[in-house]
Amino acid sequence: MNTQELTNLINANVTSYREYRLKYAQIVLQNEQLFKSLLEIAFDETNEASIRISWVLDFVMREKLELIYPHLDYFTINISRSKHDSIVRPMAKICENLAIEYTSKKPSEIKKYITQSHIQKIVETGFDWLITDQKVAVKAYTMETLYLFGKEIDWVHRELMLILEQEIVNGSPAYKARGKKILNRLNKEKFS
């Protein structure tokens, strides 16, 4: 199967139902050479398949995050350009997964690939997502991403805390729940 065939299948068949996203993610996992092309299509919001491909890539990344490592330059350059909610959400989840893997205590190949420049771009985009009109899921994933990468970049926790303290009052119940959780973790670290 080539990229165009898979793109056509994804565009015709993938819906928001988990089973469809998972089915096509498995196809990508079995044909890893398709990954780079699909990543490029996901960031091409003029392509009608970009949203559905983003959904599939999110599932691919949950199964095999290391596929994105050689493409971190491309990924981090383009995440800030995504504007459509249905693309930003999976990209925010991928950023969270990268942060979790990077800050994990277990050995990981990510440390060979991710650079401070990549982290900086993810952090900058995360703050943009946090202070702009984004869906709650994007903000929740982003809070975690910023918290984790903030363990390495000293100013991030301070800025994250300021934003959360200001925004939590007007946030949705989900925003408040995640925001309080992150604030509690930040306060514990601050006073320990």
Key phrases:
2 domains; 11 helices; Adenylosuccinate lyase
Provide a descriptive summary of the structure in words.
By secondary structure, this protein is mainly α. The protein has two domains: 63 residues, no CATH class; 124 residues. The chain has eleven helices and no strands. Helix 4 runs parallel beside helix 6, helix 6 packs parallel to helix 9 and helix 9 runs parallel beside helix 11. The longest helix is centred in the middle third of the chain and has 19 residues. The chain is globular. The N and C termini lie far apart (54 Å). The mean pLDDT is 93.
Quick structural summary:
This is Adenylosuccinate lyase. 72% of the residues lie in helices and 0% in strands.
* Main beta sheet strand tally, sense and closure: none
Continuous helix count = 11
Return the average pLDDT rounded to an integer: 93
Could you spell the SSE succession in H and E letters?
Answer: HHHHHHHHHHH
Structural class, judged by helices and strands? mainly alpha
State the share of residues found in helices, binned by percent.
Answer: over 70%
- Shape descriptor reads globular
Q: How many β-strand runs? A: 0
From the N-terminal CA to the C-terminal CA, the straight-line distance is 54 Å
Oligomeric organization of the protein chains: single chain
Q: Uncertain segments of ≥5 residues (pLDDT<50)?
A: none
Can you tell me the number of structural domains? 2
How large is the share of residues in beta strands? under 5%
CA-based gyration radius = 17 Å
